[in-house]
Structures are given as C-alpha cells and as structure tokens.
Amino acid sequence: MQTDRHLQSAGRAPGRSINYRRRAEIFRWLHRAVILAGSLAVMLVVLSPVAWLVSSSFQNEAEIVSVPPHWIPDQPTLKNFKAIFAATGDETVTYETRNKQDPASGDYIPSTAGNLLPAMANSFIVATLVVILNLLVGIPAAYAMAKIRFYGRNGSIYFILTTRVIPDIALVVPFFLVIKNLGLLDHILSLVITYLAITVPFTVFILIQYFEGLPDELDKAARVDGCSRFQSLTRVFLPLAMPSLVAVILFAFLTSWNEFLLALMFTQTAASQTLPIVLASFTSDFTISFSFINAAGLLAIVPPVIVAIVFERYIVSGLTAGAVKG
Amino acid sequence: MRLRRHFNYEERTALLFIAPVMTVLGVVAVFPIAYSFYLSFFRIKLTRPNRTPFVWFDNYLHLFKDEMFWTAVLRTTTFTVISVAAITLLALFVALLLNQDFRGRRLVSTVLLIPWAIPYVADALMWKWIYDSGYGALNGLLYQLDFIDKYMIWLGDQDKTLALIANAFVWKEVPLATILLLVSLKSIPSDLYQAARVDGAPLLQRFFHVTLPSMRTGFMLVIIYETMIAIRHFDLFFILTEGGPGTASHVLSWEIYVETFRNLSFGSGAAMSYLLALITFALAYFIIRTLGRSV
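^ inputs. structure came back:
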C-alpha cells in the first residue's frame, strides 16, 4: 500500500496530489457504501423468505388468507404448534370434525399433524445411525488412503471420487427392487443403508484431505514408540482430526435429515416416514391451512439452521476441503 | 497365511482399513449402478411381475422415439442453464463482497449458510406459499408496490414456472457456490494486484484481467458441480408443480419418477436413470480432468 501510493503520487505534479487524496477518500467512501448495500441485499434476499415463513406460521386463519397479506401477524397464535405438540385433544381434527367445517375455507389442521414429531424422531434416528456408520467405515479408510503407501491407493481414491458423483435418482430404481425383495420397505433401515451411498464418499473425501494435511512425522514417531497403525490412528491422529470429524458429522447428519427422494420411495407409513416426507404430504393437500404448513416447515428448518449458525466455521472449512478435489 | 506371504504389514493394515468402505460402497453404490444397467435390458412392469422379457436395447430405443423424453431433456436443459448461470453470477457477487474486510462480514457469511442448511422440502413449501396465486407474498408485495393491479397466477403459468422453480433452487444453491468461489478468490496471490496497481490498471481492468482469469478453476468447479446437481434435481419439481402445468416443468428426474413409480415400468425407468448417471459421470470426468491439471 505505502510504496504503491508513493509511486503513484510521485508520478504526478505536486499540485495534483491533493486531488488524488480526495479521490482516494471518495473511493473509500464508495467502497464502504457498496459493501453496506451488498450486505443488506444479501441479508434481505436470504432472510425475508424465511421471515415470511415464520410470520405465517403464527397467523390465524383470517389473517393468513388476507389480501394483501399481513406481513406481521396482528394476533399471533400458537394453535398450529399446539396441534403439533399436543396431537391429542381438541386441536386434532378428524374426518368428522373436518366435515363440520367448510373445507374450502382451508381452516384445517390435518389429523396427521401428530405424525410430525414421530417423523422428526425417525429423521433423528436415521441421521444418527448414518453418522455413526460413516465414522466407523470412513475414518480407517481415510487414514489408510492418506498415510499408508499401498498398492491400489490411487485407485481406491479415484473409486471414492467416482462414487461421490453417482446421482441419487440413478440409485432409486435398483434400490427399490432390492429393498422390496429384502422386505425392508417402510423400514428405517432401508434409509440408513441407502443414505450411506450419498454420505460415505463425501465423508472419506473430507477426512483424506485433513489427514493428508497432518505431518507424516507424527506417524513415524508413533510407530517408533511402538504403536501399531491402529493405535497411531486412534491415539495420535483422531484427536488432531477433531475439526474435520465435526464437519463430517454435520454433513452426514444434515444430508440425512434433509434427504427426500429416497425416503419418498422407501417409506409408506408413519412408522418409517421422515420429516421431509410428512412435510411434503401436507403441501399436496389443498384443504390444509397455509399457516399450519408453514408451522411444520418452521419446525423442519430450526434444527439445521441452529446447526449451521453454531458450527459455521467447521462447515465452511469442511466444504472448502471437500471442494478442492471434487 | 497366504495373505501374510503376499502383503507386508503396511499393506495388510491398509487393506483391513479400507475393506469396510469398499464393502459398503460396493453394496450401496457399485451394485445398484450395475444392477440398473442390467435392468435396463428387460421389460419390467410391476403390474405383470411374472413376465420380464429380455429386450436388448428396446428400452433405450423406445426412449429416443418418445416425445415426452425429449420434452423432459429440453426442460432439464432449460432449468439447468438458467439455474447454473444465475447461481454462478450471484455467487460471484457475494464472494467478491465476502472477500472484502468489513465489520459484519461474519454475520453475513453465517446468515448465508441458512439456505444451504435447510431441507429442500422446506425450501419448496416456503416458495410454494410465496408464489401462491390466492394469498401469496409475491402477489401481495407486487400489489402493494403497485406493480400489478390484481393477483396473478405464478407457478400455474407455463411461461414462468421453470424460472420460478429455478429461483427457489438458486436461493438454496448460491451459498455453496459462494464458498467455492471464495476459496479461489482467496488463493489469488496479492502480488498480482500489486503489480497491476503499480502498472496503473484501474479497478475494472484489475477485475477483468486479474481477478476473473485467476478464478477459472473456481468457476469451472462451480459450474460443473451445480450442473450435476441441477440436472438431477427432483424435490422442488415434486412439491411445487409435479411436472406441470402441462409439461412446462416435466424434467428428466420427474419423468423417471412417473415412468417408474406411476407407470410401474422399471425397465425403462432404469434405462433413463442410467442415461442420467452417464451424463453425470461425463461431467465429473471433466471436473477431475480440469482440477487434475490445475493442482
């Protein structure tokens, strides 16, 4: 900066250096204004749809169908959340009570409202199992590919790379037939197994990147001290790899939590349906209140949003590492 | 015993360590792909489970003669081109912004992660409600700002539907693209800028002659990666339009879904998904090639 300004002003007549300084000041001011405007625009575009979802979920029926919309609810209500959390009682609407109302008015909380919490539990169980399996198979493999020279090492890395890009929709047809034959349809195990296909390659990849970044000398020192490869991995590398493990856990969890296509194919009843499936079933029913749908949507985005905000640093570094090679 | 003779300790450990991953991926990735290739040579209708004749390339030939398939290809291409172009451009702006040093930068980058984190289904229901023709926020906002004098139909309008779905897609994909572009922005050596400044290159010239060319790999990565995601995207189409109105959003992934799970023709569904997988592999090959060259 210093030399550069010096060079530039040296080339000009003395009288014009003041002019230059003012120009720099205007430029700096403009720079700040552009940054401010840009930041505000980004925040507005990202947050306003979400804010509208939140606002809608607290509106009562009269407000949600008002034209033009009430951006902020006049009389915020918790009735949707009550219906979800206390699925039994007055708030549950059965076929009979529904018939008493005019379905066209849309003032309708579906009888399946009570499925949301079990679906959340299903999503949570599936995601947790997927995370555990990812760590179990991913950590040793990534360590071996990053730190041990063996015949076929490059080949196995390329293999992981290739499996990473298999589109989920290409897996649906064969998976469906296999799972049907195994009798696993409508069982959360079918989701745990198939989600491995879309999470494990990414997991291994991020971990390889991270292990490769750790010095080989650590390994040598551990081996000289009499550690086996396994001990070297668990006692030396794993504690150091914590940040990447956090990233891996988050990605596997969020991917499973958010997954829709495979769950749509393999689940049929509330016994195995995950949150996205129950949510999607609400959106296709025109008689369900919009504010209820938004409330359900709000519940679905709260956990991932909290995770994203709390673990921002790990997520960004993980995505960056995952990006470098594919 | 034989294992011990052929491989030394290192190699045995390595094999032991990678065996679980190879088994898992063999079962959940390699096998299904091979199996769907195999299936694509049979006529499999779940309505007639006992008759599954081997039909050679009939499923593929049938596809190429099917008008719906070509419509789906066209819709997928349109959706992908609109989305990827918008994602790349917007991500470039946001990445340039986040590459500056200013107070509140952390806040902006944290907020930016929100769309990335939420499920596509939630993204879909959020935009479906915004686009709603009766009570939606888009109508409300445009009406209050006097851009329209009566509420309009959005998703139900053939000419708008793909662009509106693309909007919901772009909203969710820009954060990741931004992070990827930011990596390549940060890796531009500052000497380049110094040199350009000493040479008296003005801001815009520095941008076009230093910044953009240095980000080539980043752009490549974003474009190919987002293309791979966009051509197979399913969730938004399922919830927002179900391929409609008419065939306005009838993309390939939707066509695969309809063919497989509504018409119950698993053979031709498998053929189509296999084609989609091949396209994705071709794109991925380019990723590996280009990155392999630059690293």
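Chain A has two domains: 2-57, 111-324. The longest helix of chain A spans residues 17-57.
thumbs up if we can close this ticket
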